[in-house]
Amino acid sequence: MRQSARAKELGFVDVEERLLVRIAYRDLLERGHEEYFEVVAVGGGRRIANDVGKSEFDRWARQHTELTDLDPDGLLDLVLRTNSSP
Fold first, then answer.
1. Whole-model pTM above 0.85?
2. In whole angstroms, what is the distance from residue 60 CA to residue 77 CA?
3. pLDDT at 12 over 70
């Protein structure tokens, strides 16, 4: 990432990741439930309010960018093109 940033004459690159998990299930009475968690990368997580989780998850689902196929150059190009984080 550092080499790609330097090649694009960027002073620095700050990469931040936020991991959200949605758990959808049915209880014994067949009622549907959804719960949302913000997951800490080094094991653990914390329960967040459903309305907050749903809002964040829906926003992500509408505008997310799949990063698994991007190399550092592609990621920086995407950020520079959209002027925002993926």
1. no
2. 20
3. no
Record the tokens describing residue 65, joined without a space: 């960018």
Half-sphere exposure of 29 (CA within 13 A, CB side): 2
- Long-range own/partner contacts, residues 75-78 (CB < 8 A, 24 or more apart): 75/1, 75/4, 76/1, 76/4, 76/5, 76/8, 76/10, 76/13
How many domains, in total, are found in the chain?
Answer: 1
Distance between CA atoms of 17 and 86, rounded to whole angstroms?
Answer: 10
pLDDT at 76 over 70: yes
Which residues span the domain enclosing 42? 2-82
For 24, phi then psi, to 5°, come to -115, 130
